[in-house]
Amino acid sequence: MTERPVRAFNGWLAVLSEAVVVVLTVGCIGAAVAAEGGASTGIFAALAVLLSLKALTLPVGFFLVKPNQAKVLVSFGRYVGTVRDEGFWWTYPWRVRRTFSLRIKTFDSDTLKVNDAVGNPVEIASVINWQVKDTAKAAFDVEDYQGFVHIQTEAAVRHVASEYPYDDYEDGQVSLRGNADEVMATLQNELQDRLQAAGVTVLDTRLRRLAYAPEIAGEMLRRQQAKAVVAARKTIVEGAVGMVDHALEMLSQQNIIELDEERKATMVSNLLVVLCSDRGVQPVVNSGSLYQ
Fold first, then answer.
1. What are the structural domains of the chain?
2. Alpha-carbon distance 15 to 17, whole Å?
3. 135 with 100: CB under 8 angstroms?
């Protein structure tokens, strides 16, 4: 089923037609009364009845189309078309009119507990902005298009969350926390594929919540802290080695002092201790010789 546009009749012209029918009905009733039982009485009476029925049924066909709204028309079980033009319209009274909002809607999913790609339980929730693009699909291809959006969104969030680890445990690995934009693009594409059947377009997806489940949150926090400490220590050691190398090179170039291998080793050891220590070091003055 695919949406097709249809033009309804101008509502104000239909109002004018209704006025004409009412006037004719009154005229026929007056003519029937004036005939006083003559041969034309029956004709005018029949015309008055038919025009009265028409006058009563015409108002049933009036309808309004507001901005960002559409009306799906169905005639005796057959899809006629969709009116998207805003305004005051009229259609045949036996056509059923179903209203669809074309405004952008936001769905905030519940917080779901899902196992990520490596089996860690995480809590995840998303917010999606969506809009009805094909009213025929939304009306006839699914039972309840809004419920369909909600269910398919939660299913897609569960599937995408299970495809990625929460954190990048390996270099270059795509993760939920570290590659949110890429993950959301994947979620949006999957959602669009799922919701195509309902005539819905996904405009935007965002993660509202992403966290480890409470039962492992403490352990994972300690893991992240340990990883941060190791990375910091690595940076400190690399910087300290560079500083020691620079100091030895300057001493050698400026002939300040000549050091043998043992003295160099002692100096390197002392400098590394000073530079790499996470506490303030206490200087020790050596008044003797290294060889005593």
1. 9-101 (no CATH), 108-212 (3.30.479.30), 224-276 (no CATH)
2. 5
3. yes
How close are the terminal C-alpha atoms of the chain, in Å?
98
Among 201, 209, 161, residue whose Cα is nearest residue 183:
161
Say if residues 100 and 138 touch (Cβ distance below 8 Å).
yes
d(C-alpha 120, C-alpha 216), whole Å: 8
pTM greater than the 0.90 cutoff: no
Q: Is 290 exposed, middle or buried (0-12, 13-18, 19+ CB in 10 A)?
A: exposed
- Over the stretch 16-71, which tens digit does the pLDDT of each residue have? 988 888 888 777 777 766 666 666 677 767 777 787 887 788 888 899 999 999 99
Distance CA 243, CA 270 (A): 12
Query: Is 205 within 8 Å of 187 (Cβ atoms)?
Result: yes
Distances (CA, A) of 181 to 92, 150, 174, 185: 50, 22, 11, 6
